[in-house]
Amino acid sequence: MSIITVENLSKTYPVAVKEAGLRGTLTHFFHRTYRDVKAVQDVSFHIQPGEVVGFLGPNGAGKTTTLKMLTGLIHPSSGRINVAGHTPFTREQSFLKKITLVMGQKQQLIWDLPALDSLKINAAVYDISDKEFRGRVGELVEMLSLEDKLTQPVRKLSLGERMKAELLAALLHRPKVLFLDEPTLGLDVNAQVAVREFLREYNQRYQATVLLTSHYMADITALCQRVLLIYAGTLIYDGSLEGLLERFAPYREVKVELKEKLADKGEGGRSHTLCAEDSLTKLQTYGEVGAVEGCIVRFLIHREDLTQTVARILAELDVVDLTVTDPPVEEVIGRVFQAGAVA
């Protein structure tokens, strides 16, 4: 049975339209006209208990609007939502105890107080006993490596430590469903890795369901087996990362290490052999040249042409090494959004 059910979900905002100039201002003041902006359009998906699902899309695609509807912060214009057996926008206390929402650019901890004081407030809100509070804080502190940090004012914590403390506060009541909106935003590489490892361990330990949005594809590839892609308010893909590559990346990445790098231009703009432009033109006959760095050339080659093209490269170029892989998933998704692909 699904723990999150979304059927034909839509959200439309009326936006006032104002013409420029004094006349437009007066008209806007006395008689406003509106246009409808469709933030989310007819979105449907189901998530099973314990799943970790990535929710991806460019800025303005409708990700945060969808998360706010799933957590009951805003009312949908149409459609049906069920999260952990509840209709979110009714905001029942029993529902709020089952979910949490973490937004990387927002904070709930009180800036000038030690994080532990804010945690005690959260414990009171969620009716957590002192014994449970001490046990849960101790467990989460160990998982997040936050020893000796909770007694410091929040403003004195590093950004990574503060994000970990925010996660601790959000998970103190041990929710069944985690909605995470950019939880690693602005963190350095080490802090990002630490947060990912914690989320993976938390999911495995408590079988929590996670819906994660992130612009860092490393978050998605490290944590999610399944992804949802939303574009212009419409869901365009729901499936595995592998299926995403098969559907939207009809090419493979071929990385070739040549014995010699592309010739530099010599005196008068020419070298003794081929100039760089001539060499690049020749390389483009094998496929799309993604990048050239010294002796390393990266090609994007259509899957149906792969065998024949690799044979040509090996026969016609002075190759030291050659590898064939799928292109980076962030590049595939970027191309999908640039093309405005639809399901």
Describe the 3D structure.
The protein has 343 residues and is an alpha/beta fold. The protein has two domains: 4-98 and 175-246, 3-Layer(aba) Sandwich (Rossmann fold), CATH 3.40.50; 252-325. The chain is 36% helix and 28% strand. It is built from twelve helices and 13 strands. It has helices at 21-30, 63-70, 93-96, 115-125, 130-144, 159-171, 189-206, 217-223, 241-248, 276-283, 306-316, 329-339; strands spanning 4-17, 33-47, 52-56, 78-83, 99-103, 177-181, 209-213, 226-231, 234-240, 251-258, 288-293, 296-302, 319-325. The strands form three sheets. Strands 5-6-7-3-8-9 form a six-stranded mixed beta sheet, with helices on both faces. A four-stranded antiparallel beta sheet has the order 11-12-10-13, with helices on one face. Strands 2-1-4 form a three-stranded antiparallel beta sheet, with helices on one face. A hairpin with a 2-residue loop joins strand 8 (226-231) and strand 9 (234-240). Helix 9 (241-248) crosses helix 12. It is globular.
